[in-house]
Amino acid sequence: MEAERPLDALNNARNKKVILELKNGKQLIGTLKAFDIHINTVLDGTEERENGEVKRKLGTAFVRGDTIVMISVA
Predict the structure, then answer these.
(1) How far apart are CA 45 and CA 58, in angstroms?
(2) Residue 65: what are its φ and ψ, rounded to 5°?
(3) Which of 20, 30, 39, 42 would be a feasible disulfide site paired with 65, CB 3.0-4.6 Å?
(4) CA-based nearest residue to 43, from 64, 24, 23
(5) What is the pTM of this model?
(6) How crowded is residue 61: how many other Cβ atoms within 10 Å of its Cβ?
(7) Where are the domains of the chain?
(8) Angstrom distance (rounded) from CA 11 to CA 55
(9) Is residue 60 within 8 Å of residue 46, measured between CB atoms?
């Protein structure tokens, strides 16, 4: 299914594992559960990674959209 708009691409990634790159250089990896028009996101099974290694397990996490630089399907 081809995405016509950015939010379509995000909707196609729902319930899939995604990588969020944050402005502070950290990565969050988890299953995308929800998002809104501000790209505020909710991830399940979230892990915080720094330099490729798991720093801590966060479980369910809410991430403010203005802290996200990139979202990629893992």
Answers:
(1) 7
(2) -60, -35
(3) 39
(4) 64
(5) 0.90
(6) 17
(7) 6-73
(8) 28
(9) yes
Tokens of 65: 């959209």
Place of tokens 């729902």: 14
**DSSP helix/strand/coil, 48:** strand
pLDDT averages per 10-residue partition of the chain, 74 residues: 81 97 95 97 96 92 98 94
Place of tokens 């809410």: 62
Q: Which residues contact 44 (CB under 8 A, 6 or more apart)?
A: 30, 31, 33, 59, 60
* Structure tokens given for 47: 């892990």
Q: Which residues, including other chains, have CB under 8 Å from residue 36's CB and lie 6 or more apart?
A: 65
